[in-house]
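Quick one:
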Amino acid sequence: MRGGGLEDRFADHAGLIAVVEPAELEDLPFDDDEFDRALAPFAPFYAPAPSAALRELARVVKPGGQLALTSWADVGAVGRLLRAVVSWDPEIDTRLAWGEPARLREELDALAETVAIHVHDVELAGATAADAERALPPVAAALSAFPGADANGLRA
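Output:
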């Protein structure tokens, strides 16, 4: 484990070596095939060059290794916000498609022989839709700005 301040969290996992290092996602400071696994929650969403970021993540994972990504689904408050943005301006890339296997396959086409894509829907354990709405006030505020939204922006 190096960097990130997470060393204590991994202390009980004998044999696990975790690397948390701040870096530009499009130019990772690691060798080709350096890791067995890489976890990049929402990484393509926030990278300036999402396709390059995805290729770079795949580059540092060993053949047969695992690259875990997360993406917004097209449901719930965030999904509704992203769909509303696209309906307002179809040219805006909300990156909602990063959760679609076809989009990932398209992005990883050059690596198709070495990368397997598996999609799993995950729900927050114990969280209700109302919990998520309360946790995302910026989403509610943005939604409420669209025509036809009610006061809280989440029921339009």
